[in-house]
């Protein structure tokens, strides 16, 4: 493997992982740790296995077909690619408003400035990355640096919190109870919506494709889940250390209270750095991937895709600064996100067995079966979530 490919594979893995590690990721992990205790370790373990199954399937099929997801979907069923693109762009835009809000909160904690000003400065930084001549390389490097910073700081807080490692290890394998909703929430937050496609599309843009690249693509896809999972496990242990001491987390911002209770004011400032890093990398990943879903629908879109990414970030920032976080839109986007993974993965599994898409490539049976199981489970729970959320929006 040459140096360029190694850098691209690592960059794609970090882009996907840091897209997953956003404000919602931090909140979900601490919330479930407080409610489930050490049993949450089992939830993390199962969700990691599901994440790997879904992501290997999707990245391999993107690579071997040498096409983006929406183009594969249109070949499987005309119009399906356009539907997927609409779902991804709506969900990506709505969640990007939340990501921008996260950058503002991070800046507020670090420097005491208003969240709105912090969001604008962060938006400008994100836009600046896409204005650089080698935007792809800049995005890869930025994701790697921010991802490493988050892991190192969380590792420090974990040690400071002194969690019960033995109990966490035992309950991760033999839990007292199993929370299915928590498993689905973690899977949706790691590989749901646009997130799993971030790295797959990045590899395609970088020229890592074809049957000969499958080994590298598979390793990169697993590495991406590994990076996100390391952050999840460290945050879980940090939160568990705080909760095990009988301390209560602030329900308004549980992740911030973990860092503050474990490491005092320094920990709180570290939370600001982590929140900002998590949010801005998610802003970049969401904008890049959402636009990658529509750029192939016309030569004009392809030509000006970088300007569209910039516009995506600008709109997200303006909506947050002027309107705030539109709660109902975020709720609906979350429900839609739950449906994107089963639809897209289902389409990919069908595509994996069509010669006009993958040629002579034979998709492993175990990947097809595991992928089909994930589709059924996530479809059922995604529809169930939609049934719950839509009546709320109509009130």
UniProtKB/TrEMBL annotation:
The keyword Cell inner membrane does not apply. One of its GO terms (molecular function) is cadmium ion transmembrane transporter activity. One of its GO terms (cellular component) is plasma membrane. GO terms for biological process: iron ion transmembrane transport. Pfam families: Nramp (PF01566). It is a multi-pass membrane protein. InterPro entries: NRAMP_fam. Keywords: Membrane, Transmembrane, Transmembrane helix. It is found in: Membrane. The chain crosses the membrane at residues 36-54, 75-97, 117-135, 142-161, 181-200, 221-244, 273-294, 306-323, 329-352, 364-383. This is Putative membrane protein YcsG. The lineage of its organism: Bacteria, Bacillati, Bacillota, Bacilli, Bacillales.
């Amino acid at each position: 493997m040459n140096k360029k490919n190694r850098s691209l594979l690592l960059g794609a893995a970090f882009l996907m992982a840091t897209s997953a590690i956003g404000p919602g990721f931090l909140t979900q992990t601490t919330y479930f740790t407080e409610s489930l205790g050490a049993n949450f370790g089992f939830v993390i373990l199962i969700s990691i296995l599901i994440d790997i199954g879904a992501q290997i399937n999707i990245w391999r099929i993107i690579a071997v077909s040498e096409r983006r997801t929406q183009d594969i979907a249109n070949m499987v069923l005309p119009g399906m690619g356009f539907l997927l693109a609409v779902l991804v762009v709506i969900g990506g835009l709505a969640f990007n408003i939340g990501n921008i809000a996260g950058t503002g909160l991070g800046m507020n904690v670090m420097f005491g400035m208003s969240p709105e000003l912090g969001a604008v400065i962060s938006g400008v930084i994100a836009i600046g990355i896409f204005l650089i001549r080698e935007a792809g390389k800049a995005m890869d490097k930025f994701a790697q640096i921010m991802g490493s910073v988050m892991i190192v700081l969380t590792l420090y807080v974990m040690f400071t919190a002194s969690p019960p490692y033995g109990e966490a290890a035992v309950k991760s394998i033999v839990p007292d109870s199993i929370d299915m909703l928590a498993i689905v929430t973690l899977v949706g937050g790691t590989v749901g919506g646009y997130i799993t496609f971030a790295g797959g599309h990045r590899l395609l843009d970088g020229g890592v494709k074809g049957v000969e690249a499958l080994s590298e693509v598979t390793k990169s896809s697993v590495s991406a889940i590994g990076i996100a999972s390391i952050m999840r496990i460290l945050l879980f242990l940090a939160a568990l250390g705080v909760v095990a001491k009988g301390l209560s987390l602030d329900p308004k911002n549980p992740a911030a209270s973990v860092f503050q209770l474990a490491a005092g004011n320094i920990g709180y400032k570290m939370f600001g750095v982590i929140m900002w890093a998590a949010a801005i990398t998610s802003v970049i990943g969401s904008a890049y991937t959402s636009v990658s879903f529509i750029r192939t629908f016309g030569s004009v879109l392809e030509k000006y895709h970088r300007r569209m990414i910039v516009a995506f970030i600008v709109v997200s920032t303006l909506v947050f600064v002027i309107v705030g976080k539109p709660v109902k839109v975020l709720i609906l986007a979350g429900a839609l996100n739950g449906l994107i993974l089963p639809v897209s993965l289902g389409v990919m599994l069908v595509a994996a067995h069509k010669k006009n898409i993958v040629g002579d490539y034979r998709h492993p049976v175990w990947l097809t079966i595991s992928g089909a199981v994930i589709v059924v489970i996530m479809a059922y729970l995604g529809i169930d979530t939609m049934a719950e959320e839509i009546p709320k929006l109509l009130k």
